[in-house]
Amino acid sequence: MSLPAPLPDARAVVTGASQGIGMAMARDLARLGHNLLLVARRKEVLEKFAAELTDRYRVTVDVRPCDLADARQRAELITELEQIPVSIIINSAGIASFGPFKDQDWDYEEKQFSLNATAVFELTHAVLPGMLERQSGCILNVGSAAGNMPIPNNATYVFTKAGVNAFTEALHYELKGTGVTCTLLAPGPVREAAKPEEELSIVDKVVPGWLWTTYETCSRQTLEAMASNKRRVVPGPLGKTMDFVSQFAPTGVISPVAGWFYSKMA
């Protein structure tokens, strides 16, 4: 198989397109000739990015400022998606929290659940009928290697990502033979190729640089996996290690260790 061919009226939709994995994948899709619909909260960032892609790759780039954690804004976007040919969707938007669940800001936790899980669920449902009717389309949902195991001090995040992981892999099997593919991206830590010293987090400082995956590498490997209709892609050495450990190490051993590490990020 391969990615859907770029078409004048079709759009590749990328959420979380203002930074990180979403921005890297939007850039690569534009390079491949796909017209884009970029979704994120920050209008000025999206417009600047859209101008860059249009100028460099001569593609059409539409921007939709939208807080996907807000049900009303999400519904407006879904109405639009149901009316246009979506050839590819990259559900990349997400946030996380760290520390004991009982101590978290409840509004933020609800927002995290809506963004990480509900938005993926609803946007996938919105674009799927059109893809099935055309017998062509690619769905990429960004889960996480963290969704493979219970991690204390990261409970809401792993709750959402475990759901995205299982949901996406279930759809992968459901859609076999339809012409529509569904791939899970389950990365470990991903960051910029170069990061200023003053912006380094505790994770940046603890994890050796050679173990990290860059956004650009993550995007390239993910698009290759999508084109091959792979069920799951786990880029980078650290992500692969986390994936392996989560599948074979005893939960009673690995979860307390991971929980201690995540408590340091609170």
Automatic annotation (TrEMBL):
GO cellular component: membrane
Superkingdom, taxonomy of origin: Bacteria
Key words of the record: Oxidoreductase
Keyword Oxidoreductase: yes
Entries under InterPro entries matching the protein: KR_dom, NAD(P)-bd_dom_sf, SDR_fam
CDD domains, sorted: SDR_c
SMART domains: PKS_KR
Example GO molecular function: oxidoreductase activity
Ranges where the Ketoreductase domain occurs: 10-193
Family from the record: Belongs to the short-chain dehydrogenases/reductases (SDR) family.
PANTHER family (alphabetical): DEHYDROGENASE/REDUCTASE SDR FAMILY MEMBER 7B, SHORT-CHAIN DEHYDROGENASE-RELATED
UniProt-recorded name of the protein: SDR family oxidoreductase
Organism from which the protein derives: Corynebacterium mendelii
Lineage, opening ranks: Bacteria, Bacillati, Actinomycetota, Actinomycetes, Mycobacteriales
